[in-house]
Amino acid sequence: xxxxxxxxxxxxxxxxxxxxxxxxxxxxxxxxxxxxxxxxxxxxxxxxxxxxxxxxxxxxxxxxxxxxxxxxxxxxxxxxxxxxxxxxxxxxxxxxxxxxxxxxxxxxxxxxxxxxxxxxxxxxxxxxxxxxxxxxxxxxxxxxxxxxxxxxxxxxxxxxxxxxxxxxxxxxxxxxxxxxxxxxxxxxxxxxxxxxxxxxxxxxxxxxxxxxxxxxxxxxxxxxxxxxxxxxxxxxxxxxxxxxxxxxxxxxxxxxxxxxxxxxxxxxxxxxxxxxxxxxxxxxxxxxxx
Length: 290
Known about the structure:
Mean pLDDT: 89
Number of helices: 11
Structural class: alpha/beta
Radius of gyration: 19 Å
Order of helices and strands: EHEEEHEHEHEHHEHHEEHEHEHE
CATH architecture of the largest domain: 3-Layer(aba) Sandwich
Low-confidence stretches: 176-189
Shape: globular
Strand order of the largest sheet: 10-9-8-13-11-12
Strand content: 15-25%
CATH topology of the largest domain: Rossmann fold
Distance between the termini: 37 Å
Helix content: 40-55%
CATH class of the largest domain: Alpha Beta
């Protein structure tokens, strides 16, 4: 039985991932000024630069998870085509999206008892989620079956690392991650927090640095402590409208590790609404996470 790999748009996928790898996505949404938009990978509802300009202009975006019906429609379309489903989703520690996907899958398992509908929580997001899904899709293209790919994801998702360097503390303040006083002081001192997705799939502050270059140096140190796992030479970097900074970090990774397969992606509105413009995320599969 053939199968389709599905995910959701909290993973910062590129259009090429959808077209070349065949991953199908359920879309989260965001609301600005009372208008709701879908977080499509091609940003057809709102150009990505327009979104970040709204944030720079002081507007806030509210995000919403994928609901059960959206997942039901996505999964059932795959099943009706004669395919099984492997859903690899956004961290349950950050959103109810994965829970909605599991509810839809559970209902459809009763309706299609002879079919496989497998759901796996990456306990990650942004380009980390995209990295896991893309590697799974490449295994599928190599002829690996759904059970083998699912087992690989279960074994390696807990070892993928996601580090976030945030430029503007005010966006974290709005999300309740730092106090108003800390945001003001941090902005005055050019403090850049370094955030990590832990083993529970939740965001935690692990370090801070004064200035972006020092923050990137610390991110590279964090990467070194977890040693990119042997055989996994892909690194995904995502940015929120700061391509030059993302390329700077990519150059630092190449210089340190000699890694050439580095993909630089956009941070979509769902993640960017919480981190703000000027954020850079790096992800890789290491020997461990924590």
